[in-house]
UDP-N-acetylmuramate--L-alanine ligase (Caldicellulosiruptor morganii), 455 residues
Amino acid sequence: MDKFFLIGIGGISMSAIALILKNQGHIVEGSDMQESKTTRMLRENGINVHIGHDENHIQGDETVIYTAAVAKDNPELVKARRMGLKVYERAEFLGMLMKDYKNVIAVAGTHGKTTTTSMIGYILKKALLNPTILVGAFVKQLGGNFCIGSNQYMVAEACEYVDSFLMFNPTIGVILNIDNDHLDYFKDVNSIIESFRRFAEKIPPDGFVVANLDDDNVVLSLKDLNQKVIYFSTKTATDFWADNITSCNGYYEFDILSADSKILSHIKLNIPGFHNVYNSLAAFAVCYLLGIDPEIIKEAISEFCGASRRLEKMGNLDGILLYDDYAHHPTEIQATISTLKKLTEGQVIVIFQPHTFSRLKSLLPEFVNSLAMADRVIVTDVYAAREKNVYGICSKDLYEKLKEAGVECEYISQFEKIAEFVLEIAQKGDIIATIGAGDVNRCIDLILQKSPVKS
């Protein structure tokens, strides 16, 4: 039995690691800046959580794990290093933890990681394989953002930011897509492609990579790779491909065929958007190759109702639909708005909160193009996340560019004012959607509170 202390234990991934370690019989405690549902849940599971950071929390007999969001001068981190304790960053430790599992499925890609990881996890649960699942959002059908299972299967998101997924030890890799993002860390798209190649090279000889044949950057990253690559597509006959694709009000169904054009299954999605055809193809391919009955896979995918903040329907105010989506990259925003427009004949009114100054700076024209698909846009202040604004840009710059492009838009900084404004302009049949990876979803609560009609 070992002792572990987790700095930032209330985070989505950190809380999951804490419970895995507790489940393995170790002594686990940690600290976080504020009380939350997660910290309370951890205490209910016998894990001591301190609110606030203090060097006295470190006793000298523990292994310390910290999240990347923790400052270098964090008193607990400083003391642990001063005492010469074993200290690991979250991704590094998770990579070590993966070695305890027989099958480790790591889902990578600029977009779609959370949905695809959740979908694979749900299929494995449906197949009674008792997986351990780590996902970056609350998933109702999983009962949270993680599941603690046996050491036979682990499914986890693999994020490319700061090359963190290169610390992982997967046996199966999924690459959904590769897009221009995280340019505060990566030099350009070529360095992103190279990072994904290095991720694919981590797959052992008896494992495989499941990859999107329709994404040119993915194909380039895997060129002449020694590892086994299994492709999926909606355009070309390949290892797993979608044919007879039809849609009704943004919801898709299709046949999945093998390389010899044999129909393996007919899939009917319970979540909207063409991008989810790709996510479900990846999930099907992984689970089929693991030997799961196609009927079980089909049933699980048809039941899967998505992760929180992924085109999540939040309410209905007398015919005005409220949606929330985590999209924070122009490609994701385009997919989200395109799907929303298929869900209504009314207007799509978007409340958009840019996520990080660096992303807004590097992709400003692309943000304008994607948001221009909406009927009306309300831009609010940038959610800075890990950054300080040293980029010379703000949300008003996006607002001005949208105006120049002829987009009907407003800039409103206060969420209260946004809620009041959209309730004034929205009509029956319209959709109001909050879009962004920050806290813009708080606007939904304010809209519901201020509306005379309760959902």
